[in-house]
């Protein structure tokens, strides 16, 4: 079937079988391999992209059902080799990635959290952890990722986000 | 605060030891790194593998014609296509060849063929491979392959596999016994137990676990008919090892006709250092079809094919005095090797565990025996902390049982038995000689940091909220830095275990370091650049690091057993020192002074007492590139290599304290605080190491609380996807309280010890100790992992295990 998607701001028109998954279209059809596949069951979150602003697991979305939507992938967050986004930069400073395989999905999922809370109070540590439950990481133990989100959220705010001081006090430098 | 003991790290004001940001991270954060699944060579065909749906059966027939005629299918291969290909060797034969039944230098009895043609021995056992134009076509064709099976009885537990009348897996291995292995002094230990004032015993199940890197494995084979060269792109921890094993021992092709490339690898934790059938398959099928052949595993495929970890059933005994002095420890273990001996699986199940059982304690008599058996399960290999985590678990559980038996505080019992620092190097009587340590300092620091003394009050407070609070301590010593090649040969390792580095200083003064290791997420590029820059006194930004490609990198053995910083980094440091020595020698010529008047400092040389007579690093680099005026005994150019083989292993150690709260209504266990004080010797980059420590602890907490590879009675893995195999998620863990002590190892020039996996060793014991502490007034003496809410809830209700 003929489908149009707007991917990272670019219209893409193609024909796809009805059972094609969005992640297959992105990786195999459009060559956007920053989106990863880590499981077969929607558990790991490595394939998270944003669909009309909401973070979704692209292995659980049929390409056909996304027709007409705005799709944002990791490739759209920065240009190749380009300056990191505020969230990516905060994660870099906290070493919030190790092997990097889960990272694009994390960045896309957390991007929604950062956007959604931009106008209100910064998310608390439990809120960040809860938000992250859709993304599995086997390397970091999540701590550096949580600290990265705290740093990213603090960057645009005057006050220290709730939970930050206590959390960092509990984790002195190794 | 950092406590430094022994020889303090040299403070040269250099970049080593600084928390530099990881240079790998930006590319990863932008999603630009290339993993195997992202490799798309022109003309690539796609492979899928048919794994057995049953755990044990004779194959009566395989019919592939229907599959061959499906759209896009290029080739369907079975065992009949590969009769001249050798099985995948096992290269760690613990206890020597004689301990095996029957003896064989390459562990071939029971070895896995590339594809099995006559018998399947576990669910997922590869039977056939399909290559097609697209991954979907290849996967669809698997369903059209008709295999007729004659079911055979199934056994999934090591102890049951060794019983009379058990199903037999391999004709060449009667009784399913791969090896009987021992260490320590049996007679002395038995005598000490018989004479003891107090003995405690436990029956432990250290459950099977699945490493679960988030990237499943993959492989791309590319045969070049013009040169006769094969290239393998694979998610591997050890490209050089794979090159040797595949070329010499499996394919029978010249070593120089195989190139192995590890692209970015998405986590490993032990599993990606093994040989798997897909590796020779993509190479052989690429040659057969004249096209690149690519295979990427699925999660369920990974869970039924990639090596799994732990899986011991143990009877353990500790003997001691009434006043808290441990006099003996003894372990009898049944280790489950799975259906085939994996590349180094038998060594993990025996030596790494058995020689480590006495941990941090000074015990006069210790003995361990392991029966390593084949069963109808996925082959066993390394899981982060492999062997050492199993050892720490049994020892630390025993210490808590003992403390409870004699009515002494478990912290005090431990304190009374720690190896005193005057005794180093310390022979633990089981085969390890601990290099260095101040265990008491480390232990006290962790206990204090955890707020241990305040626990009774916290317990009382928790009860007012319907929670039972428990505290558990676990200590460990983790052998790392594999290792001294000759010593490893005595352990039955059939191969060298040294490591190497090459450094080239380019004419313009920039530097390229290449190493034989292969990062799977440990920021090797960042840290090795720091090592080279620190030694040479130059800016780390001018140092490029390469690894993971056998055509570019010097020989090496790869990344496993937390060895990169204590094996590869010392090779980098020693190479830099060779370059410095050469620069001093040549500098004497350039400065026109005797060699002993040349001072190398801050990345430059000058004449002693005359800083005006000097050459910068860049000037030296160019001068060495030109080679003008050098005497015959000094070669031009700056290009040195070191092959580093240490005198012995290194032994990081540490103390962890877990605090849990158990909900009295639901049985849910929450880790509410976790303290870890680890000693990894001198640390190259504390930021990177902190990441390794944090991830390691969570890995260990996963085993304690939720992870289990469960097989049913038919040998079917019930937890074969991430919906059924629970991994820790962000909300399952609190922030940790981390600190360190620093005891440099004398066995390498950096004073380094392993770090990458060490903190996975104690968490399981710490958490189970904490939960048992919380439930001790109910008469609970032990609970097997994982500590699921149901299991704990039943114990709260007074049910027995």
Overview of the structural elements:
The complex is a heterodimer of chains A (174) and B (801). In chain A, 32% of the residues lie in helices and 13% in strands. Chain A contains 6 helices and 5 strands. Chain A has helices spanning 22-29, 86-93, 103-116, 125-131, 143-155, 164-169; strands at 2-7, 10-15, 48-51, 54-57, 70-72. Chain A has a 5-stranded mixed sheet with strand order 2-1-5-3-4, covered by helices on one side. In chain A, a hairpin with a 2-residue loop joins strand 3 (48-51) and strand 4. Residues 1-10 of chain B have low confidence and may be disordered. Chain B has 801 residues and is an alpha+beta fold. Chain B has 3 domains: 36-89 and 100-152 and 216-265 and 271-303, Aldehyde oxidase/xanthine dehydrogenase, a/b hammerhead (Aldehyde Oxidoreductase, domain 3); 309-482 and 648-796, Aldehyde Oxidoreductase, domain 4, CATH 3.30.365.10; 498-644, Aldehyde Oxidoreductase, domain 4 (2-Layer Sandwich), CATH 3.30.365.10.
Name a few traits of the molecule.
heterodimer; A: 174 residues; alpha+beta; Ubiquitin-like (UB roll); DNA polymerase, domain 1; 2 domains; 5-stranded mixed beta sheet; 6 helices; 32% helix; 13% strand; globular; B: 801 residues; Aldehyde Oxidoreductase, domain 3; Aldehyde Oxidoreductase, domain 4; 3 domains; 7-stranded mixed beta sheet; 20 helices; 29 strands; 27% helix; 24% strand; disordered N terminus
Percentage of residues in DSSP E strands of chain B:
15-25%
CATH superfamily of the largest domain in chain A: [2Fe-2S]-binding domain
Shape of chain A from CA axes?
Answer: globular
Low-confidence stretches of chain A: 160-174
Please report the number of helical segments of chain A.
Answer: 6
How do the strands line up in the largest sheet of chain A? 2-1-5-3-4
- What is the class of the largest domain in chain B in the CATH system? Alpha Beta
Architecture of the largest domain in chain B in CATH?
2-Layer Sandwich
Going by helix content, strand content and strand pairing, the class of chain B is: alpha+beta
* Number of extended strands of chain A: 5
Mean pLDDT over the residues of chain A: 91
Number of strands of chain B: 29
CATH topology of the largest domain in chain B: Aldehyde Oxidoreductase, domain 4
SS-derived structural category of chain A: alpha+beta
**Biggest interchain interface, per-side counts:** A-B, 62 and 70 residues
Q: In the residues of chain A, how many domains can be counted? A: 2
